[in-house]
Amino acid sequence: MSTNVRPIVVPELARSVLAEFESKQEAFPEYEVAGALRKAAQANAPLSQEKKDGVWAESAAFCFSPRRTGDVSDWETHFEHAGSLTQEDGTKVYIPDIKELDAEIIAHWERRLAECEHPILRARYADLLWDFRKAVTGAKAKVDDARTAIDSYVAASHLPISEPHIWQIRWVERALELAISINDSSRIEAARDAMFDLYDRVADPKLCGIWPFLFDNVYDNKKVLLTTAQEAKIIQSLEEILATCSDRSKGENFNPWGAEEAAKRLTIHYKRLNQPNEVQRVIRTYGQAFESIAQIASPLLAMSWQQPVFEAYQAEGMADDAKRVQLASKEKGKDAINEMAKISVPITISKEELDKFLEAITASGLRESLIRIAVQFIPKAADARAHLEWLQQTDPLTAMIGIRKVDAGQIVAGAGSIQDDPDGRLLVQIAENIDIAYAFLGSALDRLCERYSPTSDDLLAFLYESPVFDADRRGLIKKGLDAYLNHDHLSVAHLLVPQIEHALRRLLGMLGQPTNKSVRGASGIMEEKNLSHILEREDAIKRCLGEDIRLYFLVFLADRRGHNVRNELSHGLMADRQFVRQLSDRLLHVLLVLALLRKVDQPARDQASEGQ
């Protein structure tokens, strides 16, 4: 210890709190020490600066939070801040902050380690010294601190404790981690044995967040040597938990999620032994637990439980089991739509405002009105992103929840949280924005028809100002337009959707890209690219259409997270009730947007570029 470091003075109020914890015979979580110190300081306020410093030096030791497995510390240390916030200028504030520590604090923790006897206190001081000494002072960490921390954590794991046992689990996990890091074989064995001892006390089948720690830490860990008896004990215990948790006759111990966690770990074991029959057995055991509760669950819950089971069966080649769940889920899902609550948000717009909008958008002639309607009702990706950002700020819990789309008694699409799946949620939001705009688009088209009474030939003339429409398809498109004007919505969809796909494929060819591709697994055989391929994979299309139009077409026509009209129609998935005015209006609008595309004169464009 450096002699030029001024000792920290711990006030009596803090010493009294520490003495109380020193005398405890049972285990306690470290944060209780920090809380008791803060409470004592508040009760004795105001304090001098010297006393504040003394209290802080002690409370900080128990405020830092141990990093959980898999987490990344901002400081590249085991201990990290308990919380953080971001200021308006973007600066992060950590509570507590490692920058508040100095050599004086490190020296104080060394003195406290030498003074105290309670294993929980000793483990925290020793582990902090091992973890922070170099980061704070630049001095080399002392291996004796790691050894002391390991021994103290092991001792703490044997203390009696009330629920939950999670603190003792973290202590033995940290003891094993430290022992492995310093390659201390005797302490690795001590930590391992402490884990087995703790496991015997806490392995409750109902607590599937507790008991997996033994398998997760020591099984297949090359640094931890297991006896044959120890490995057999782990597997036997998992088998017992699987059997208990999957048996509905076990009452409160019946827990399909616990059965699943046991089966996951047993699957690893039996795969290592190359025993596929055992793998299938444990998966089927937990799967049937979910199948049984799905029978009495609501349709939405049943589907959400059955889908992962179906996927697990399928992954292990359990075709009969997968088929059974697939059929049961589809049958259960028939009533799912009736279970969903409708959420409506009223949008109020005065007749005067609407008339003003419709007057502006349909003024200046038929051609100009068609252009304005085409441009006005292209959904903007920026608007969708702005709404998602607003949702994250105003309702963060909702923003964290994923979305599932249910149709025809099954889950047909999904998107994760806004943070984890921003692209998926963007497409879902664009689809919602398309729906919201339906009424306004319909009103605009009604006003256009009232004002100009366009014929199919008038609309056709506008469309064919663009080269993306093939002259050979003119008759088909005219029939589709006639059907639109005659309110024959069934014919509109069947006639115009294929022509939209053909126009986009023609556009791809005009951009100098091949419109066909090889058939996978069939040498020398080619096929035309479909709409999904064109909109999702072709960079030339992305550059030509831009983000707004491409995502609009993708969401409305070819992505299962959106309306997916092209694929639904092509695969015979659309019912009669779906061929309605709103669908026809949007298909006409897609044609109008395509009609905005013009062939750029290459020499003129090059000349213009040279003049810039």
From the structure above, extract its key features.
612 residues; mainly alpha; 3 domains; two-stranded antiparallel ribbon; 29 helices; disordered C terminus
Q: What this model shows, in words?
A:
The chain is mostly helical and 612 residues long. It has three domains: 1-202, no CATH class; 222-341, no CATH class; 352-379 and 437-595, no CATH class. Helix content is 63%, strand content 5%. It has 29 helices and eight strands. It has helices at residues 12-22, 31-43, 49-63, 103-115, 119-137, 143-157, 166-181, 185-202, 213-218, 228-245, 256-272, 276-294, 299-315, 319-332, 336-339, 351-361, 366-376, 381-394, 396-399, 422-436, 438-452, 456-463, 474-485, 489-510, 531-537, 539-558, 565-570, 581-595, 602-611; strands spanning 65-66, 79-80, 83-86, 92-95, 403-407, 410-415, 516-518, 526-528. It has a two-stranded antiparallel sheet. The protein has a two-stranded antiparallel sheet with strand order 3-4. β5 and β6 (410-415) form a beta hairpin. α2 (31-43) runs antiparallel to α3 (49-63), α6 packs antiparallel against α7 and α7 packs antiparallel against α8. The longest helix has 22 residues, at 489-510. It is elongated. It starts with 11 loop residues before the first helix and ends with a helix. The model is unreliable at 602-612 (pLDDT under 50).
